From TrEMBL:
CDD domains: LDH_1, UEV_TSG101-like. InterPro entries: L-lactate/malate_DH (IPR001557), Lactate/malate_DH_C (IPR022383), Lactate/malate_DH_N (IPR001236), Lactate_DH/Glyco_Ohase_4_C (IPR015955), NAD(P)-bd_dom_sf (IPR036291), UBQ-conjugating_enzyme/RWD (IPR016135), UEV_N (IPR008883). The gene is Uevld. This is UEVLD enzyme. It comes from the Eukaryota. It comes from Eubucco bourcierii (red-headed barbet). GO terms for molecular function: L-lactate dehydrogenase (NAD+) activity. Pfam families: Ldh_1_C, Ldh_1_N, UEV. Residues 1-131 form the UEV domain. Interconverts simultaneously and stereospecifically pyruvate and lactate with concomitant interconversion of NADH and NAD(+). It catalyses: (S)-lactate + NAD(+) = pyruvate + NADH + H(+). One of its GO terms (biological process) is protein transport.
Length: 466
């Protein structure tokens, strides 16, 4: 079944000469879409010097189009090893390297790939030794991750952490990321009083620094700081605030760095809180919400982005309090994508387009909306202001308020959008995330802008490596 059998056999002979400890076999590989193929694969260890010399267990799957397609590479940790999620390894143990991304026959070879793998692992060790209690928990996590990798995730199953105990109606939330935005979210949620417990997952390397250290010093009640994903178990809302700080050169590289970061986060938090709502505040929010949805395998209703909630609240405030406009401010929304392409819209009020009063009302709304948008342009999105917006959304979810917010949700099927993209639209939020979308006035210009945003976001997503 291998298209280039002779070339493949020749290369594997070279691998065997260099690494005689590798064992070869033919097994069934299950892809993310559920399709399966019988593929050649080999397992073994590679020597990595990190102070001492360590033997890192790996497994490489050889695609049937080899050597014109790169292998699929995984770490194969034992039950006493933990995976150190980083820029080259995700929580599944899958390995991502520049060599794989730039694979080109005949320049690229498996021997060359393994050499780069060793070099990168010597910079950042991908595995660490677990204690006996951690090993048992890690074994369970690896089993779950294997199911994700093989497309077998059962979303109806429940978390079985710490003996399988659940916390009933206990309102626990987790904030992932201890940067300025993450800490702002913790403080805002704590101040709102909606959560019984707030966990801050600090994924940065080293000891607590900056704001995280201050949180520990002043010990806010019901706030826990941890570096262990298991601390997030049974959260009702998981808030994603992390952004990659890599040395990316282009906008696409920046987003890809965030995607790589999320590959190591989303499967783990999804495992520990299978029934949670994922609330994404990372940038760009539309793309990272889509990425979170794909990596978590959660239903679309339980993966939302902060979207234009902050802009909408400001917009409504400006209309009602600064401009004192004679229009229904509560029916005014900012929708679409964050940034310059956001657009004002209005709740459907069934005004006939050909009635003079209706035309006058629409003209009045448009004029005042333009003035409000000019005022809105001068308002930046500082960490503390986004944190307040996140706390507002979290409050609506935890208390099942059925309040309408403009949040990033799957827009496929809306305004003739046919692609899987997330855009900010008015949605009723409850304990299970998005309950329903609110109908907006039909406006050809608004629809055109939404379709344009959807097209550009979809094109960008197509260039990402998930």
């Amino acid at each position: 079944q291998y298209k280039f059998r002779d070339l493949t056999i020749e290369e594997l002979k070279n691998v065997n000469k260099t690494y005689p400890n590798f064992t070869f076999s033919m097994n069934t590989y299950t892809f993310k879409d559920g399709s399966q193929k019988d593929l050649l694969n080999f397992s073994g260890t590679i020597p990595v010097k990190y102070g001492n010399c360590y033997n890192m267990p790996i497994r490489l799957w050889i695609l049937d189009s080899h050597p014109f397609a790169p292998p699929i590479c995984f770490l194969k940790p034992t039950a006493t090893m933990g995976i150190s999620v980083g820029k080259h390894v995700d929580a599944h143990g899958r390995i991502y390297l520049p060599y794989l991304q730039n694979w080109s026959h005949p320049k690229s070879t498996i021997i060359g790939l393994i050499k780069e793998m060793i070099a990168k692992f010597e910079e950042e060790l991908p595995l660490y030794s677990l204690s006996s209690s951690d090993a048992a928990r890690q074994s369970e996590l690896l089993s779950y991750i294997a199911k994700i990798t093989e497309g077998e995730t059962d979303m109806k199953s429940k978390s079985k952490i710490d003996g399988g105990k659940t916390e009933g109606c206990f309102n626990k939330i987790t904030v992932v990321g201890a940067g300025d935005l993450g800490i702002a979210c913790v403080l805002a949620v704590a101040a709102k009083g909606a959560a019984d417990k707030v966990v801050l997952l600090d994924l940065s390397e080293g000891a607590a620094k900056g704001g995280t250290m201050d949180l520990e010093i002043f010990a806010l009640p019901n706030v826990e700081i941890s570096k262990d994903f298991s601390a997030s178990a049974d959260s009702k809302v998981v808030i994603l605030t992390v952004n990659s700080l890599g040395n990316a050169q282009t906008y696409l590289d920046v987003i890809q760095s965030n995607v790589d970061l999320f590959r190591g986060i989303i499967p783990a938090v999804s495992y520990y809180s299978l029934n949670s709502v994922l609330l994404v505040a990372s940038h760009p929010v539309e793309v990272m919400t889509y990425v979170s949805w794909k990596l978590s395998a959660f239903p679309k209703s339980r993966v939302i982005g902060v979207g234009a909630n902050l802009d909408t609240e400001r917009f409504q405030y400006i209309l009602a309090n600064l401009l004192k406009a004679q229009v229904p401010a509560k029916g005014a929304w900012i929708i679409g994508e964050q940034g310059e392409d956001k657009v004002p819209s209005w709740t459907n009020c069934s005004l006939a387009a050909n009635q003079p009063e209706a035309v006058a009302a629409r003209n009045s709304r448009e004029a005042v909306a333009n003035r409000a948008m000019e005022v809105l342009k001068g308002k930046g999105q500082r960490s503390w202001s986004v944190g307040l917006s996140v706390a507002d959304l979290t409050d609506s979810i935890l208390k099942d308020k059925r309040k309408v917010h403009s949040v990033s949700t799957l827009a496929k099927g809306y305004c003739s959008i046919n692609s899987e993209v997330f855009l900010s639209l008015p949605c009723v939020l409850g304990s299970n995330g998005v309950i329903e979308m609110v109908e907006l006035d039909e406006d050809s210009l608004v629809q055109e802008k939404l379709q344009s945003s959807a097209g550009s976001i979809h094109d960008l997503q197509q260039q990402l490596k998930l």
